[in-house]
Write a structure and sequence with these properties.
The structure holds two protein chains of two kinds. By secondary structure, chain A is of the alpha/beta class. In chain A, 40% of the residues lie in helices and 22% in strands. Chain A has a single domain, classed as P-loop containing nucleotide triphosphate hydrolases (Rossmann fold), CATH 3.40.50.300. In chain A, helix 5 packs across helix 6 and helix 6 crosses helix 7. By secondary structure, chain B is of the alpha/beta class. Chain B has two domains: 156 residues, 3-Layer(aba) Sandwich (Rossmann fold), CATH 3.40.50.300; 73 residues, no CATH class. Chain B has twelve helices and ten strands. In chain B, the strands form two sheets. A six-stranded mixed beta sheet of chain B has the order 6-7-8-3-9-10, sandwiched between helices. Classes of the chains: A alpha/beta, B alpha/beta. At the A-B interface, helix 9 and helix 12 of A face helix 9, helix 10 and helix 12 of B.
């Protein structure tokens, strides 16, 4: 273990040259060239910051999230958590890392087992990690539910009895159960209406302060980005094409791709121009 | 040429048990010409869907009061007998619902559900209906219609189910399709796919459409003319470019701003660069 002061200076996460290739495995296409989902991705992330990774669908955002959470193994590169290259770890060595990084998915309806009660869902990660007795785990689940604003009396309800926003809070409580240091939200807030989104953002901001959490938001919701991000990385065809502090990047974009992503599609005049220019030809 | 549909002074109010009747639509009037897409935009609760349902005679008769006139191909739809309406519904005017999860029968193969529409309106054999259903599936963009026809709704994605509804709506080659928020339940990429499909069909057929959507970018993609509603009334209507780019009513401007798709546009427009007009 390193000393506390040394730990402070070290970034929480360093991603170096991460490349992810998928081979098409059709019957007759074995020789086809692999699809490169991530191409030499590098960045560092300091603790208690919020990074937004944006890009159009298919740009590689979710692949990157899954690699960082070790749900997939990149073809090449290093992922350093503190000083440890987690890609070199195996089996039980990975357990502490798997606790420290949690992923919250887009659709809480499909990511939460409908047959579990709320308390069971929130405490399931503790069961997996073999922590505490059943009674302790239940108590912890109630505390976590309280923290995300869900009353303890709802602990026996099942996911489908909750609203969309409540269900996403349940998913967040579950992610918090193992005291993570990094939480990755893969489009986790995009399906919520504006009021629920606001509520959850408040909650996340409080938790970030209390527990000095680090967040990565994978999203195409640029409104969300402008509200939460300290840093923004723009990803296009598997590469980070732009990365910087949020206010500066929102103000000025270096690449045409980022500019188009920020402004291009949002203008109705662009849609109309394209449509009626076509009609004239 | 006379318009396909002429709506004049249409007012709809819902009777309520223990309160004054709620007026959902007040003195609304518009025309739809053959082959035209008329967009109806407005915040939720502004009466968009009530207008749509009144065109199909689908409002509950015992609980609504309708006044005004709905002239379709010279026939008055308001107050028309149910039996007569049933011949028009699905055959001459059809509806694409907002939620394919609810509109499709969960225990019936989707091919059958399309063939059912044909059987209701044409005196074709079962075999012919099945063949036609397959060609409709191909028309709404399925590459393997006969396989899709054998699926149940739960075996399809949201975007695919929405296309099944569209195939049903197209089945009898109606003169008018009423599409009520057809893309609202779809994610961003299936939404743009579905819009592209509607755009192609618009180019290929002479079917007119009443497109109900609160999303300006959906309207800008498809509508030829746009009607903007607020609290049951039409606050503005005109050519799509005119209304989107030079809205006359401040409420229209607000709707266009708030709902603009790349949400950052709105944000940057209002908070970071107050002088930068992104939308208009």
């Amino acid at each position: 273990m390193t000393t506390a002061s040394h730990k402070e200076a070290l970034p929480l996460l360093a991603v170096r040259g991460v490349t992810q290739e998928f081979r098409k495995t059709g019957l007759f296409s074995a020789s086809a060239s692999p699809v490169r989902a991530l191409d030499d991705i590098s960045f560092i992330l300091h603790r208690q910051t919020t990074l937004a990774i944006i890009g159009e669908s298919g740009a590689g955002k979710s692949s990157l999230a899954r690699c960082i959470a070790l749900l997939e193994k990149p073809t090449a590169g290093e992922i350093l958590f503190g000083e440890q290259n987690v890609l070199a770890l195996n089996g039980r060595e990975l357990l502490p890392f798997q606790r420290a990084v949690q992923l919250v998915f887009q659709d809480p309806t499909s990511s939460l087992n409908p047959r579990f009660t709320a308390a069971e869902l929130v405490s399931e990660p503790l069961v997996v990690q073999g922590e505490g007795t059943a009674a302790q785990r239940h108590q912890k689940a109630l505390e976590l539910m309280h923290q995300v604003g869900l009353p303890a009396k709802w602990s026996n309800k099942r996911p489908l009895e909750f609203s969309g926003g409540q269900r996403q809070r349940l998913a967040i409580a579950r992610a918090l159960s193992l005291n993570p240091r990094l939480i990755i939200f893969d489009e986790a807030l995009s399906s919520l209406d504006i009021d629920n989104q606001e509520l959850i953002l408040q909650l996340l901001a409080n938790l970030q302060r209390e527990r000095s959490l680090t967040y990565i938001h994978i999203t195409h919701d640029l409104n969300l980005v402008s509200r939460v991000a300290d840093e923004i990385a723009v990803i296009h065809q598997g590469r980070i094409v732009e990365h910087g502090a949020a206010p500066a990047l929102l103000e000025h974009q270096e690449t045409a791709y980022a500019r188009e992503l920020f402004f291009g599609r949002s203008t109705l005049s662009a849609i109309l121009d394209a449509r009626f220019a076509e009609a004239q030809r | 040429m006379d318009p396909l549909l002429q709506v004049r002074d249409l007012s709809v109010s819902y009777r309520q048990e223990s309160a004054e009747p709620h007026q959902a639509v007040a003195a609304v009037g518009f025309d739809i010409h053959a082959g035209e897409v008329l967009g109806v935009m407005g915040e939720s609760g502004c009466g968009k869907t009530t207008v749509a349902l009144s065109l199909l005679g689908l409002l509950p008769r015992d609980r609504t009061d309708i006044s005004g006139s709905i002239l379709f191909r010279g026939r008055e739809l308001k107050g028309m007998k149910e039996a007569e309406l049933r011949r028009i519904r699905g055959a001459e005017i059809s509806l694409v619902y907002q939620e394919p999860e609810i509109a499709l029968c969960p225990v019936m193969r989707v091919g059958q559900q399309i063939a059912e529409v044909l059987r209701a309106h044409k005196s074709w054999t079962t075999g012919r209906c099945r063949v036609e259903a397959n060609s409709l599936l191909a028309r709404v963009g399925f590459e393997n219609p006969s396989q899709i026809a054998d699926r149940y709704p739960h075996q399809l994605s949201g975007g695919q189910r929405q296309r099944i509804l569209l195939a049903q709506a197209l089945a009898c080659e109606p003169a008018l399709i009423v599409a009520d928020e057809p893309t609202a339940s779809l994610d961003a990429s299936s939404q743009s796919e579905f819009l592209e499909l509607l755009r192609q069909l618009k180019d290929e057929t002479s079917t007119a459409m009443l497109l109900i959507s609160h999303a300006p970018e959906v309207q800008a993609t498809l509508a030829d003319r746009l009607v903007v509603m607020s609290h049951g009334q039409i606050i503005e209507q005109g050519d799509i470019r005119q209304v989107c780019l030079h809205p006359a009513d401040p409420r229209t401007r607000k709707l266009l701003d708030r709902n603009a798709s790349g949400a950052l546009g709105t944000f940057v427009g209002t908070e970071l660069h107050p002088e930068h007009e992104l939308i208009v």
